[in-house]
């Protein structure tokens, strides 16, 4: 359990007199999205939907350290914890999408697993040239529910499937070619903030929220419908298998998994 004086997993800051807010992952170097981080994200997203941030026109999503995020806590993928972990993660993702603010994510280093799923909520992803993006859950004998919903919308079904079922990583240039990344910049945080200032800050905050809500209507419907189904698939069909537990155990023991295909 974290102590009272432990640094916050995620912080919120306002910029340009409230024109946009920055959600920053603050657990470098890996910025693991454990349960505490996910609960913080859900609470901050709910706050952004309230009157205190009525003038905000966007969210800038950033991270401390060399990597954006390596994703959810691997031990929390184990059978005993997976259902609770997925529930917390999906609540955070849905709260972020439901706050009706465009999101611009600035990623560098590793943006993997749940880290990429978080970035997939963004209207626009700006990546450092050395960034590595991917959904490696299959390498643990697992699957990626949020990415299974969001990735095909962004890059198409066949390309999304190839990434999801292989666990392959792509660099920023390949991600840009796929349509996964909108821009590449040596200083992605500055480039993302500049894009917000140029394209969103001059707009009406109220109109922008409503336009974002309209644009996301089908996305919200899909998340509300499909994520519960994928949670059940994970909890009831994947987690009880030998190989799902073996994948987590092998990762923690730093060895190759020994699949039994059951």
Give an overview in words.
With 262 residues, this protein is an alpha/beta fold. It has one domain: 2-enoyl-CoA Hydratase, Chain A, domain 1 (Alpha-Beta Complex), CATH 3.90.226. 46% of the residues lie in helices and 14% in strands. It has helices at residues 35-48, 82-98, 114-119, 145-155, 157-166, 172-178, 188-199, 205-215, 217-238, 242-252; strands at 10-15, 20-25, 59-63, 103-107, 110-112, 124-127, 132-134, 169-171, 183-184. It has a 6-stranded mixed β-sheet, with helices on both faces. A 3-stranded mixed β-sheet has the order 5-7-8. Helix 2 links the parallel strand 3 and strand 4 (103-107). Helix 1 (35-48) runs parallel beside helix 2 (82-98), helix 4 packs antiparallel against helix 5 and helix 4 (145-155) crosses helix 9 (217-238). The radius of gyration is 18 Å and the shape is globular.
- Count of separate structural domains: 1
Give the oligomeric state of the chains in this entry, treating copies of one chain as homo and distinct chains as hetero. single chain
Which residues form runs of ≥5 with pLDDT under 50? none
Per the CATH scheme, the topology name is 2-enoyl-CoA Hydratase, Chain A, domain 1
Strand order of the largest sheet: 1-2-3-4-6-9
What CATH first level would be assigned? Answer: Alpha Beta
Number of helices: 10
Radius of gyration: 18 Å
Which overall shape is indicated by the principal axes computed on the Cα atoms?
globular
Element string (H = helix, E = strand): EEHEHEEHEEHHEHEHHHH
Q: What is the CATH architecture term? A: Alpha-Beta Complex
Portion in helices: 40-55%
* Average pLDDT number: 95
Specify the CATH homologous superfamily: 2-enoyl-CoA Hydratase, Chain A, domain 1
* Coarse structural class: alpha/beta
Number of β-strand runs: 9
**What distance separates the N and C termini?**
34 Å
Q: What proportion strand?
A: 5-15%
């Amino acid at each position: 359990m974290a102590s009272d004086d432990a640094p916050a997993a995620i912080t919120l800051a306002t910029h340009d007199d409230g024109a946009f807010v920055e959600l920053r992952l603050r657990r470098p170097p890996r910025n693991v999205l454990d349960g505490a981080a996910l609960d913080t994200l859900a609470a901050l997203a709910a706050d952004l939907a309230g009157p205190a941030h009525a003038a905000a026109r966007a969210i800038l999503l950033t991270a401390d350290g060399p990597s954006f995020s390596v994703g959810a806590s691997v031990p929390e993928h184990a059978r005993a914890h997976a259902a609770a972990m997925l529930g917390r993660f999906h609540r955070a993702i849905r709260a972020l999408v439901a706050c009706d603010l465009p999101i611009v994510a600035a990623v560098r280093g590793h943006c993997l697993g749940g880290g990429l799923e978080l970035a997939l909520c963004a209207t626009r992803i700006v990546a450092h040239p050395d960034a590595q993006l991917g959904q490696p859950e299959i390498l643990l004998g697992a699957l990626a529910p949020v990415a299974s919903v969001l990735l095909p919308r962004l890059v198409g079904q066949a390309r999304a499937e190839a990434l999801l079922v292989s666990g392959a990583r792509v660099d920023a240039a390949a991600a840009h070619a796929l349509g996964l990344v909108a821009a590449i910049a040596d200083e992605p945080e500055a480039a993302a903030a500049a894009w917000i200032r140029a394209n969103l800050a001059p707009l009406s905050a109220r109109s922008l929220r409503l336009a974002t809500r309209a644009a996301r209507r089908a996305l919200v419907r899909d998340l509300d419908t499909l994520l519960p189904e994928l949670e059940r698939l994970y909890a009831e069909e994947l987690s009880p298998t030998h190989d799902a537990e073996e994948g987590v155990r092998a990762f923690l023991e730093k060895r190759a998994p020994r699949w039994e295909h059951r």
